[in-house]
Structure formats: C-alpha cells, structure tokens
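Sorry to interrupt, but I need a hand with the structure work. Could you add the entry underneath, on a fresh line?
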Amino acid sequence: MRAAIVTGRLCAALLAAFLALGLASPLFAKRKDDVVVMTNGDRFTGEIKGLQQGELIFKSSYMKDSVRLDWRDVERVESKDNFIVELRNGKRLTGIIEKSATSEASAKNFEIVSGKRIIRVGSSDVTLIQQREESFWNQLTGSVNYGFSFTSASSAVSSSLGADVAYRSSKNLVQLASTSQFDSQSGSNNANRFTFDSYYGRSLTNKWIAAGLFSLLKSNQQDLNLRSTSGAALVRRLVQTDTTSVQALAGLVDNHEQYEPQPGTKPVHNNAEALVGVRFVMFRFKTLNINSQTYLFPGLSDSGRIRISSQSNLRIELIRNFYWTFQLYENYDNRPPVVAPKNDLGTTMSLGWTF
C-alpha cells in the first residue's frame, strides 16, 4: 500500500511538472518561409521543424506530413527564425541559422547569428536543431509499441506494452518510459513484469550534466513486489555526433525493496548504493536505431551486494513512423535478501509508432 501511494504521488508530481512546463512555455508564430535546397537541386519552402539523429525534419504547406531529409544531402538552408543549435562538443547556441553550399567537407559552412555575434562551424558539427518558438507540446517526442504471441501446443501467451516520452529544452532533458509484460503458459505460474524509468538532465557545461533518476520495477521472476530506486548523478559526454551518443555517469541512489513474504525473512529492505553506468545511442538514417543503457549498483549499506540493470533496444523503421523493435533486458542481483532467482533476463519483439 505504501509503495502504491508513493508511486501515485510521484506520477502525479511528474505530470504536474510537465503541465507547469507546458503552461509556462511561450507560444510564438513560426514563419513558413524557410528554404531548404538538396544536393540534387530539389528546393523546398516551408517550415524547418528541427534536426535530430541526422534527419532534418521539414514541412511545406503542400505536404500532408513532415518529411525527413538526410542532413548530409542538404546543400543549403536559409531561415529568419531563431533556433537552438547543439554542436558535437556539447555547446548550445541560439540564433538565426544558415547553411551554405560547399565542395569541402571540412569547411565551416554552417552559420549561427546570435545578436551581433556570428558563429561559423562545419555542418557535420551540428547534432541538433530545435525550434526556439515551439510550444511545449510540440517539443514532446516519444513512441508506443505492442507485441503479442501465442503458441497452441503449450497454450503459451506472451504480451508486452511499452511507451516513452521525452522533452528537451536548451538546458534540460526529461525522459519517461514504462513497460508492462505478461506471460502465461499451461501448467506453470503466470509471469508479470512492470518497469517505470524517469531521467532528468540539466547541462552544466559542454561536457557535464547534472542528472536525477527514479525507477520502479516489479518482477514475478525475482519474487519482487516492487523496487524503487531514486538518486542523483553526474553525467559526462564522451561521444556526441549526429548519429552516435555515448555518456558515462556516476552517483548515489536509495534503493527501497519489497519482496514476497517468506518464512524467516524480512520482505522490506532499504539500501544506499553507488551508481556507475553507460548510456549509448546509435542511429543510421532510414535503417536502424540502437538505444542501450547499463547501470551498476554496488551496495554501500549492504556491502558486497551488487545489482546490474541493463536494457537494449534495436529499432528498425518499416514505414513512416511505424517500426519493429527487439528489446533485451536483464536485472541481476548477486545476493538477493530473500530466497529468489538472481537473474531476470528476457527479450521482447513488438511493433510500434513514433511521434
């Protein structure tokens, strides 16, 4: 009951924070006369939505949906609006943008005009472009996926549902993700698994980020009714390009666990733990997206105990905004406080939609 109340309050607080950000975000009229010219001569006039993962997102009045253009094949860009631009070195700038044609790959052909300053960089150094005038709701990105399988021979049913959403501003990043899995097979107990993960990061410098983390895990496989993990960390950007991101983090967390009651054991435990982890993202235009994170939790108040939480996702786009995904997850505990399996390892396959 206590865990459910805490979970409800935290979810309500996160929702309230999103609503507060949304109401506080200014709304401005966006110009519709941005110009994009491709290397093959195609010319578009309309609205630059942004650049992410090597794709320039663009929308014209004569287009039903936004199109995604390979940034490497964009020869020229002109706009009179202000954008937030993130560079390979982690630096963020705000200003009017322009990309000019050049035959040299190393030329500083991308220009950011901020007040009286003009900053010139190579277009390959640009990893993110975001509309400064966008409303809060238009800055949300995310996905929903669902998978189902049935085997008649063993009457086995497997169902999985997942969703994630992210919000990014010039200094802040908020990410929320949740998964729910159900497995049933004739002659065996049902297996249920639920996760909720939240991440907040605020850029301190080009290379350093202050982060807060909160996660929930329920796993029948490990006799775990609910585990909540919350803490803070410092994140270091190791690699940042338009197609690859690698980050390392270290910090401290509080771990609250509630296991299935067992004779002679205490079902509720609280532990202080260290945190060391790696976050990895790789994207290839029109092909695939790999997102992986691995966290190591060495025990502090429970010395000698080590937990590992790992999750990797391979996503392949099938048609526009629809994709197939393969997920591999593992939760390992070298010394559970009750008699329970040390490992919770599994895979899921599903179809999904991005927004």
In short: The mean pLDDT is 84.
